[in-house]
Design goal:
Rossmann fold; eight-stranded mixed beta sheet; about 20% strand; GMP Synthetase, Chain A, domain 3; 30 strands; globular; binds magnesium ion; binds adenosine-5'-triphosphate; about 650 residues; disordered N terminus; seven-stranded mixed beta sheet; ANL_N_sf
């Protein structure tokens, strides 16, 4: 065991929250489940054999020689094998006779819709691939994609994959600087964008941001622009090209080359909640095998009958793996929605579920808490009986949000799968299986078959049932990141230096008395109050369990007496109003009763909004800046930077 740095307060993590509600898998789902309980043992008995079998879900041009080549911490999966990701996602389904099957029911925010079949998608991808080649893109070149949530975004990604040009999708809500620094870091040659997209009822501009970002970046040779809103755009002759000119006149056939299993598929930058964003590199064969398997296993996907909807942005890894590569590799029918959940009204998501008969829905806890805030009468107006599995991703789901989701969206019948994973893991790692695992509100439960995640203490010892520590992964997995783009040292340092030979994701976790895993949020977010470790997640969940609270964010602020003091920001449920002094006391007492007096926040502030990333993660480091009266750190990855002004305005003393 290597020397690990002793960060005070990280030796143990608290284990305060008690949650005893249990939801067994529904009998009919269990009887017909894709994955049975024995999958865990089968996979454990022959892990590489198990993943080989999953790779067999894909169409390979040439089979692999070795399942895994592991030179820690660098892994190569399915070496010697060749395949094309776009062919796996599109062509092979058309060839198998499913060309008329719907790949996407697309819903624009203003209410316009498009239905894209697999055959149409194949034609569009081939045309875009031909256009990229014409623009001089060659295998290995990086292509930036800065788009709204429209079908062309998927087409652009698959066209890149098809010709072997790694894509680098930047969330359309990011600033010029965020886009520019990612273009620099990945050295992208072409940017694919749109004039704009619809958000919150009006067209937002994208092309203008690209213009500003590429102005001083001559490395970008072309900007390919989809017309989505029809708004006016500036035009640079020679550099800018309309999609409808360059793509739509191309041939719908394109002979796809099979790429090496380890050929780079994409770079995706992390959210930057804890540090400067890292360019996470994913490759082709292993990534596709694991996203395909997890999409099928964790959601119990029945490709013939299910309508699957990940309500997330493609500019987040969840969109890559579970709007694009997972569902398409499985030949599924998905819903794709362009806009926000409250445009033009707060029932928009449920209207979409009802309209398309969505059977599986996957979203972030932040969205669920927003729906809680709006109240249960909103979903009650829609027929949600088509739903059979619900998923959550992005943050620990508070037990209260879980049960609200299950009851008000899932009709008290659907399992909720709380899926833990990261940009770096590429695909789901720890999650219940809906036909096998009992549901416990707030718990991600067990590593999926084939994954060896564990909870260890600061000496890398596996903790006993009832213990707390850090989540780690023991063995390489197919969809794991292959590194940080251009920075192998940072890769080793960030993920492989804390515990020798173990992958360290940076999250705290606990194992309950049954041996099931609960995620406790970032290790960086753990607070040390009077010598006790308290996780922000647990205090937040305690606050959210109060009937008047919809959403809470907690941070530790330096305190002369206690070392760190707990400062909480809360959003109240719709019907409650402003709050006031009485409510603050009520909430402090409520936390005291739920978790113990030590966890009582020093300060509770009622706010209208919280600072969030594109995936809805709360940026606690910014709240810490507010709580400690400091000027704000990097805000470039906030979805809406005006939120910080609104919060500051509400808080006398805060800048
Ligand atoms: P950065 O690393 O730059 O701070 P990020 O970690 O926010 O960015 P992502 O890769 O999107 O970017 O997020 C992964 C993180 O999200 C995990 O490490 C974990 O903290 C959290 N997370 C995701 N799913 C869950 C879940 N089901 N339960 C608890 N935490 C989750
Ligand atoms: Mg991270």
């Amino acid at each position: 065991m290597a020397e690990t740095p002793q960060e005070p307060g990280h030796e143990t993590l608290s284990n305060l929250l008690q949650e005893s509600r249990r939801f067994p898998p529904p009998a009919d789902l269990a009887a017909d489940a894709n994955v049975r309980a024995d999958a865990y043992e089968t996979a454990a008995a022959d892990r590489l054999g198990f993943w080989e079998e999953q790779a067999g879900r894909l169409q390979w041009e040439r089979p692999w020689d070795n399942v895994l080549e592991w030179e820690p911490p660098f892994a190569k999966w399915f070496t010697g094998g060749t395949l094309n990701a776009a062919v796996n996602c599109v062509d092979r389904h058309v060839e198998a006779g499913s060309g008329d099957k719907v790949a996407y029911h697309w819903e624009g925010e203003p209410g316009d819709t498009r239905t894209i079949t697999y055959a149409q998608l194949k034609d569009m991808v081939c045309q875009a691939a031909n256009a990229l080649l014409e623009l001089g893109v060659t295998k290995g070149d990086r292509v930036a994609i800065y788009m709204p949530m429209i079908p062309e975004t998927v087409v652009a990604m698959l066209a890149c994959a098809r010709i072997g040009a790694p894509h680098m999708v930047v969330f359309g809500g990011f600033s010029v600087d965020a886009l520019g620094s990612r273009i620099d870091d990945s050295d992208a040659k072409v940017v694919i964008t749109a004039d704009g997209g619809y958000r919150r009822g009006k067209p937002s501009a994208l092309k203008a941001s690209v213009d500003a970002a590429v102005q001083d970046r001559p490395g970008v040779r072309h900007v390919l622009v989809v017309r989505r809103t029809g708004q006016d755009v500036e035009w640079t002759e020679g550099r800018d090209v309309w999609w409808h000119d360059a793509v739509e006149r191309q041939s719908t056939s394109h002979e796809a080359e099979a790429h090496d299993a380890e050929h780079p598929l994409y770079i995706m930058y992390t959210s930057g909640t804890t540090a400067k964003p890292k360019g996470i590199l994913h490759t082709t064969g292993g990534y596709l095998a694991q996203v395909s398997y997890t999409h099928w296993a964790v959601f119990d996907l029945k490709p013939e009958t299910d309508v699957f909807w990940t309500a997330a942005d493609i500019g987040w890894v969840t969109g890559h793996s579970y709007i694009v590569y997972g569902p398409l590799s499985n030949g599924a029918t998905s819903v794709m929605y362009e806009g926000t959940p409250d445009t033009p009204h707060k029932g928009r998501f449920w209207e979409i579920v009802q309209k398309y008969g969505v059977t599986i829905a996957y979203m972030a806890p932040t969205a669920i808490r927003t729906f809680m805030k709006w109240g249960e009468d909103v979903p009650a107006q829609y027929d949600l009986s088509s739903l059979r599995v619900l998923g959550s991703v992005g943050e620990p789901i508070n037990p209260e949000a879980y049960t609200w989701y299950r009851k008000n969206i899932g009709g008290d019948r659907t399992p909720v799968v709380d899926t833990w994973w990261q940009t770096e893991t590429g695909a789901i790692m720890v999650s219940p299986l809906p036909g096998v695992t009992e549901g416990k509100p707030g718990a991600a439960m067990r590593p999926i078959p084939g994954i060896t995640a564990d909870v260890v203490d600061d000496q890398a010892r596996s903790v006993p049932d009832g213990g707390g520590g850090f989540i780690v992964v023991r063995d390489p997995w197919p969809a794991m990141l292959r590194g940080i783009w251009g920075d192998p040292e940072r890769y080793k340092e960030t993920y492989w230096s804390r515990f020798e030979g173990l992958y360290f994701p940076g999250d705290g976790a606990k194992r309950d008395a049954d041996g099931d895993i609960w995620l406790l949020g970032r290790v960086d977010d753990v607070m040390l109050v009077s010598g006790h470790n308290i996780s922000t997640t647990e205090v937040e969940s305690a606050l959210v369990s109060h009937p008047k609270v919809a959403e809470a964010a907690v941070t530790g602020a330096t305190d002369p007496v206690t070392g760190q003091a707990i400062v909480a920001f809360v959003i109240l449920r719709g019907e409650v109003g402003e709050g006031g002094e009485g409510l603050v006391k009520e909430l402090r007492d409520h936390v005291g009763t739920s978790l113990g007096p030590i966890a009582k926040p020093r300060q509770i502030m009622v706010v209208p909004e919280l600072p969030k990333t594109r995936s809805g993660k709360i940026m606690r480091r910014l709240l810490r800046d507010v709580a400690e009266n400091r000027s704000l750190g990097d805000v470039s990855t906030l979805t809406d930077s005006s939120v910080m002004d609104i919060i500051a305005e509400k808080l006398p003393g805060a800048k």
